[in-house]
Known about the structure:
By secondary structure, the protein is of the alpha/beta class. The protein has one domain (4-181): Alpha/Beta hydrolase fold, catalytic domain (Rossmann fold, 3-Layer(aba) Sandwich), CATH 3.40.50.1820. Helices cover 36% and strands 12% of the residues. The chain has six helices and four strands, in the order αααβαββαβα. Strands 1-2-3-4 form a four-stranded parallel beta sheet, sandwiched between helices. α1 packs across α6.
Amino acid sequence: MDSGWMNAASDRLAQHDVHVVRFEFGYMAARRSGxxxxxxxxxxxxxxxxxxxxxxxxxxxxxxxxxxxGGRVASMVADDLFNRGRIFxxxxxxxxxxxxxxxxxxxxxxxxxxxxPTLICQGERDPFGTRQEVSGYTLSxxxxxxxxDDGNHxxxxxxxxxLDANLDLATAGAAGWMDRAx
Length: 182
């Protein structure tokens, strides 16, 4: 939750008056003490995500989301939270549409009919779902996509483009989208 990428994205969102609350899944927190395990199945993290949402006060419009696995897990609990009036929308940065080099193993079944307003910010050459691949998917009409020029999974493009420019675009786009959706 305090990687360079997360710090940069959170700082940029804060510059757009977006209050960001971060948390770390248990398996990621365990890595701080040297326990390196592969990520668990996303379904096993739903309870942790719901607990984190419940720990946040509701004085402001609440949007949930995350980066990669965090965004995927958020997308799996979003409809329930939206239908209960707990959240206004979902923002995913670098959604893992499929494992790298395994485009046949889609992780999109729940995205076909998701009802919560959703923004996915995705690098055009993300190995978890390129622009070319994702453009052929059937997704809910409630999902908007913001493509980041030549970006990889962390939005980093090849030169002469810059990561800073893509992070600026993603966070400004997300903040503007939340203003409209909330």
